[in-house]
Amino acid sequence: MNIKGFTYSAVAAGIRKKERLDLGLIFSEKPAVAAGVFTKNRVKAAPVLLGMERIGQGRAQAILVNSGVANACTGKNGMQAARTCSGLAAAALGIDENLVQIASTGVIGEQLPVEKVAAALDELVGGLSPTGHEEVARAIMTTDTVPKTAERTCTIGGKEVKLLGMAKGAGMIMPDMATMLCFVMTDADIAADILQHHLLRGVMQSFNRITVDGDTSTNDTVLILANSTAGNPEIIAPDTVESTIFGAALAGLLKDLALQIVADGEGATKTVTIKVINAANEDEAEGAARTIANSSLVKTAFFGEDANWGRIIAALGRSGAVFDQDSVDIAFGDVLLVHGGLAQGAAAEAKATEVLRQKKFTVTVDLKTGQATGEIYTCDLSIDYIKINADYRS
Amino acid sequence: MNIKGFTYSAVAAGIRKKERLDLGLIFSEKPAVAAGVFTKNRVKAAPVLLGMERIGQGRAQAILVNSGVANACTGKNGMQAARTCSGLAAAALGIDENLVQIASTGVIGEQLPVEKVAAALDELVGGLSPTGHEEVARAIMTTDTVPKTAERTCTIGGKEVKLLGMAKGAGMIMPDMATMLCFVMTDADIAADILQHHLLRGVMQSFNRITVDGDTSTNDTVLILANSTAGNPEIIAPDTVESTIFGAALAGLLKDLALQIVADGEGATKTVTIKVINAANEDEAEGAARTIANSSLVKTAFFGEDANWGRIIAALGRSGAVFDQDSVDIAFGDVLLVHGGLAQGAAAEAKATEVLRQKKFTVTVDLKTGQATGEIYTCDLSIDYIKINADYRS
């Protein structure tokens, strides 16, 4: 999908390894309305600190992103490197430095080689093209096995509005070389605070609901640029029909990218939705789903295709959710394996095992305590996860 | 170590597999003072519910323990099975049924085969011997590769007081077949409430400070029986010199057993102490140490012998502990790898990698925020952990 007014470019700058795309640029011909969501980790990389500082103005015109080095835990030098790179990019593009957003993903604790970024900038800017987004999606990959992009269109005030997104991430959210990054470009005409509102809401329902290994990164960043070239009536309130249509399109795009990340989870062979229903409240529903989704024992049983509901109920029991152990139901797909806290026998287990053999399935846990529901998306924990992460930096 | 007045026996009752010790009995010739600590998991196995009910009386005379079946999530039938087994054991021993404690470890959701326990009881009681504790330690093993026992002696009021403990557990605390169980026998003369006080304090500093995979079990149980045959002046207050001596001996024994569990962690090749110093308070110190110790990425890096401090600082950043990312120090053994939030270079990393090659080492994280310290004991996450848990029930 091309969106009028946006161009993209990626080059191999040799930041950590040679001859792989590792530096990307997203450019909006005019300053765009911008919103961002950043890692909640107390340890924040230099580009995140700079991005948080700049996103407050609600505008941006370019995103410069590198893989290979996270520029995290790099102190004052790292902060200076981020500022220098953004300044160099601004100069090459002929725009205000404060309109440049920076993002990095890669090894923590190594300094960003500014001279390599500087040397590559001419080629990078020269290569800007309306069709280059796929290359940028490749440039931000680390342990990802596939580039991740998604697109949506919606109609607002009679005008077609486009959204184009890209993401990377394979450990969720792995602090070494698999930070989660996501960039979305849209031609919508929308006020900055409403854009921020919809972005945050979308992130809550997508990237904040996936888990590969429970870790979070120093560099996680989600940015959206809206350049208003669609010509729709400007969206200026959160709850109008137009705003809701835009929000739903954005949320759908973010969930699409989030599920691509889970499916590409390090070593993952299966994508699993953990759904907790009839909980006392939403916090308990989501907390219970998250505890189950993060349990190494549950995830390893998924890998082994073992309908080991004992591990699920044990994870549930430490989640803090209120329930009566003699009332709980557990289903794998549409197979009711546990009813009223009791196993439903060998035939049900055999059917549940069939469900587990699929690449994608849902585990539903009915707490019978209230009316709240929570969903978390996860993957299995495989031998390859260990291999990938044990051998990582070498 | 033999302790006067205690006898032990174990047999192969065929509860789940044939020809392996799976039923154990610990017997005190006279009713002993007793204390217990049980799982905090909301889902509790029938033997745990029965044990919690009975421990309130502060006395017990026998512990009947089986492996193979956890008798968890077994409903009313499971509760009835636990009561029936304790009644049968009481009859065979000629004691009050309420003085029998029951413990189980094994697969969740399967009913305990009462008839197999009943059929084995005569042989079990007939085999009681002062030297049989090693056999009981074997009978409670599941994925454990070695039986775990420890002993201590101390002198109280001029009398030698002995403590003998056994434990099982290899996943921490794995809800399938690797529940943590621990039984301690002592000849100390001690009041029930003081025994409970010291047991709880010891458990807090030992079993509650280890982690293999962050999971907790439906069946975790720690029991202590004190039969007063040592002839020491009865310990009746928590803070006397005698009480402190006893508490320290018990705490040391429990820590010894806890570290044996970590060292035998499923697939573990290394035992690692995570020590957080100079935190704002003890909760943050322990919480930070626990978050690091439970991180799959950190544990996999230990397995890969990769001095990947980026994963440690990222886990620290999501732990909730307060610190300044530009002040943190991290040491592997006595090698300072990160100082003031910055890597100390290739030479330090090479030395840190040497530390990681050891079977046992300490990672120290200095938050420089306050004076509190917290320690957690963990192991690495290996390919064998996945193999063990993926193939488990088959």
Walk me through what this model shows.
- The structure is a homodimer of 394-residue chains.
- Chain A has 394 residues and is an alpha+beta fold.
- Chain A has two domains: 258 residues, L-amino peptidase D-ALA esterase/amidase; 120 residues, Roll (Ubiquitin-like (UB roll)).
- The first copy, chain A, contains eleven helices and 15 strands.
- In chain A, strands 1, 2, 3, 4, 5, 6, 7 and 9 form an eight-stranded mixed β-sheet that branches. In chain A, strands 8-15-10-14-11-12-13 form a seven-stranded mixed β-sheet, sandwiched between helices.
- In chain A, strand 11 and strand 12 form a beta hairpin.
- At the A-B interface, helix 8, helix 9, strand 13 and helix 11 of A face helix 8, helix 9, strand 13 and helix 11 of B.
Q: Tell me roughly what share of residues is in helical segments of chain A.
A: 25-40%
CATH architecture of the largest domain in chain A: 4-Layer Sandwich
Beta-strand portion of chain A reads 25-35%
- Global morphology of chain A: globular
CATH class designation of the largest domain in chain A = Alpha Beta
> Could you name the CATH homologous superfamily of the largest domain in chain A?
L-amino peptidase D-ALA esterase/amidase
Largest sheet of chain A: 8 strands, mixed
Classify the oligomer. homodimer
The CATH topology assignment of the largest domain in chain A is L-amino peptidase D-ALA esterase/amidase
Query: What's the tally of helices of chain A?
Result: 11
Strand tally of chain A: 15
**pLDDT average of chain A, as an integer?**
91
